[in-house]
Design brief:
Number of strands: 3
Number of helices: 8
Helix content: 55-70%
Number of domains: 1
Shape: globular
Low-confidence stretches: 1-19
Strand content: 5-15%
CATH class: Mainly Alpha
Structural class: mainly alpha
Distance between the termini: 37 Å
CATH superfamily: dinb family like domain
Radius of gyration: 16 Å
Strand order of the largest sheet: 1-2-3
Largest sheet: 3 strands, mixed
Length: 186
């Protein structure tokens, strides 16, 4: 289990949203959901691999998601986002407490992102082939925040499946896209 003082931070942060652009709030929300799930896991469950047919560990999926959030935050000011420039094998992959600290850091940075950031034009650098070549595409910070939101939900679905396969419970709705939630309400 994760130390209680770290778990209390999530509750405190949930109530403090500054006037953020519309695209930031959903990313912060999905980060907090991810934080809550990570807070339920011990190191063995967090690092175990494989878990059924899912590749990697829960920690690996968490690190991957956080790398994408970091890329948007860094790229918003730099004018360029590079999702493929990631540091693998970090402490975030192997230590749930380190993951929670990183989630909190990213959540705080999103919380102070300027309101006008969503409209900023950025170049997105991405590898579309395995030969290492990079393609540059034009986008906006808001569009990339929407991508990261969707991407994190997608990995949340895998993480939720892994948690359940390990005998744990993921919160209801964790890993579900807003469109799925809306469809199920019909």
């Amino acid at each position: 289990m994760i130390p209680e003082q770290l778990n209390q931070t999530s509750t405190k942060q949930a109530g403090r949203d500054s006037s953020n652009p519309e695209a930031v709030a959903p990313v912060r929300q999905v980060l907090r959901q991810l934080r809550d799930v990570v807070g339920l896991l011990d190191v063995d469950h967090y690092t175990r691999q494989p878990v059924t047919t899912f590749g990697g560990s829960i920690g690996g999926h968490v690190r991957h998601c956080l790398d994408h959030v970091e890329a948007v935050i860094s790229g918003a000011d730099a004018g360029a986002i590079d999702y493929d420039h990631r540091e693998r094998g970090t402490e975030v992959e192997t230590d749930p407490v380190a993951a929670i600290v990183e989630i909190d850091r990213l959540d705080s940075l999103l919380g102070i992102m300027p309101d006008d950031a969503s409209g900023r034009t950025v170049v997105v650098k991405i590898m579309l082939r395995g030969d290492g070549s990079v393609k540059e595409m034009s986008s906006t910070v808001g569009r990339e925040l929407a991508f990261v939101f969707s991407h994190t939900i997608h990995h949340g679905a895998m993480i939720g499946g892994m948690v359940r396969a390990l005998g744990g419970d993921a919160p209801e709705g964790f890993g579900l896209a807003p469109s799925t939630i809306a469809y199920r309400k019909q």
